[in-house]
Amino acid sequence: MIGLLIAIVSMVIVLSVVVTVHELGHYWAARACGVAIDRFSIGFGAPLVSWRDKRGVEWRIASIPLGGYVRFAGDENAASVPDQNDLDAMKREIADREGDAALKQYFHFKPVWQRAIIAAAGPIANFILAILVFAVMLVTIGDLKTQVIVNQVEPGSAAAAAGFRPADVIVRMDGRTVENYREVQSYVALRAKLPVRFTVQRAQQTLDLTATPVLVEQKDEIAGRVKVGRLGVALTGRGYLEKSSPLMAIPHATVQVWDMLKTIGFYLGRLVTGQLPADQISGIIGIGKTAGAVTQASVEGAPDLKTMIVRTVASQAILIASLSVSIGFMNLLPIPVLDGGHLLLYAYEAVFRRPLRADFQAAGFRAGLALILCFMLFAAWNDLNRYDVFKFIGGLFT
Predict the structure, then answer these.
(1) What is the pTM for the complete model shown?
(2) How far apart are CA 329 and CA 345, in angstroms?
(3) Helices (H), strands (E): how many in the chain?
């Protein structure tokens, strides 16, 4: 029960931070464009706490802490982009009620480029959050650097077939420089059944070896049962933490976030094309499990309260940054309901000089919502299966 409570609390904290920053991106972009805002909500459902600021914006913390939203004045259309007939009717209603001057405060009457900026500001805020977190970590803690040395080669493995030997030093993978053993593990894990070209240093020689990781299922303490690419080597090497200067931390963190985005895109591409099994997709349960496990690992073994707090804050910050990149990326997908879907509609409007018809928008919104709900259910099923919940329940009745 304590573990479950830690997981729930950690998940709520992590998700709330990521979602709040995302929605603040929309909020501040809208404010910069002079858009009138009705509400800023952290969570959905009935409000637990609410208040209004001097601009008349209602700020609320709602009862279901699994998301959030910004509602603009006059935003009654589900897709946030009414068609031309709706716009004309809305314009007359607002002009009669508040005067023509009030029209410039409404989101729907802003130039399409401003609406696109507001839609993109949420994901951009997520990326900025991740960059700032990683930059702080690089300055205060540093980045792990190790010489990656092959300690053992498993007989019959992909590494053995490729010609790896103990004492080989891995210096590059597919042309990219290897800086620590974690890079090798994460890179190989996503490339099952794909040839990977390794550059190794063997005594005084530099050799190129090509290995094709095999797809295996293994048990992970945090992720449960996962299917990953496996090379078949044990790696070792003495490491150290290299700190960045405050001047270089932001550029280095930006590169780190960009690499994460490329990795997510690569992984998603392999899933869509069927090269990786879809049962590896994780959802809200996986996020909760990961958040709880990271928190528990930070607390256990801490020699004192100060160390425990520092470890917990650092681990949660890294988790927040990683999740922020993922949510920012997913929100840019061209699916109605998501920010990427809004951007697609604005692109249509920019090209054809008028919004898409309301019935098409409504149909797209319903299809997008159904797709997202199905994805969430599928991810939840995967999480329950990955953590052997079904086996546990079945065992209760045997």
Answers:
(1) 0.87
(2) 18
(3) 11, 12
Q: Which domains does the chain have, with CATH numbers?
A: 2-125+311-396 (no CATH), 138-280 (2.30.42.10)
CB atoms near residue 283 (< 10 Å): 17
Q: Give the pLDDT confidence of 197-239 residue by residue, as tens digits.
A: 999 999 889 999 999 999 998 877 666 678 889 999 999 887 8
Q: 249-302, pLDDT tens digit by residue? A: 999 999 999 999 999 999 889 888 888 877 777 777 777 777 777 777 777 777
pLDDT in tens, 307-360: 888 888 888 999 999 999 999 999 999 998 899 999 999 999 999 988 888 778
Per the residue annotation, which of 23, 58, 217, 242 is the catalytic one? Answer: 23
**Is the pLDDT score of 174 beyond 70?**
yes
> Which one is predicted more confidently, 66 or 369?
369
- d(C-alpha 103, C-alpha 96), whole Å: 11
The answer to whether residues 44 and 62 touch, using CB atoms and an 8 Å cutoff, is yes
Reduced to 3 states (helix: H, G, I; strand: E, B; else coil), residue 239 is strand
* Cα 320 from Cα 13, distance rounded (Å): 9
Q: Write down the residue that tokens 């190989």 correspond to.
A: 188
Query: Which residues, listed in sequence order, are joined to residue 64 by a DSSP beta bridge?
Result: 44
Helix (H, G, I), strand (E, B) or coil at 245: coil
Distance CA 58, CA 347 (A): 31
> Please, what is the Cα angle at 264 between 263 and 269, to 5 degrees?
100
At residue 53, what are phi and psi to the nearest 5 degrees?
A: -90, -175
Q: CA dist 367 to 109, 208, 216, 279, 363, Å?
A: 26, 49, 35, 23, 6
Q: What string of DSSP letters covers 170-226?
A: EEEETTEEP-SHHHHHHHHHT-TTS-EEEEEEETTEEEEEEE-PEEEEEEETTTEEE
Q: Answer for the pair 151, 235: CB distance below 8 angstroms, yes or no.
A: yes
Do the Cβ atoms of 179 and 255 come closer than 8 Å?
Answer: no
Which of 287, 33, 15, 13 minimizes the C-alpha distance to 126? Answer: 15
| DSSP β-bridge partners for residue 196 | 211
Is residue 93 part of the annotated active site? The answer reads: no
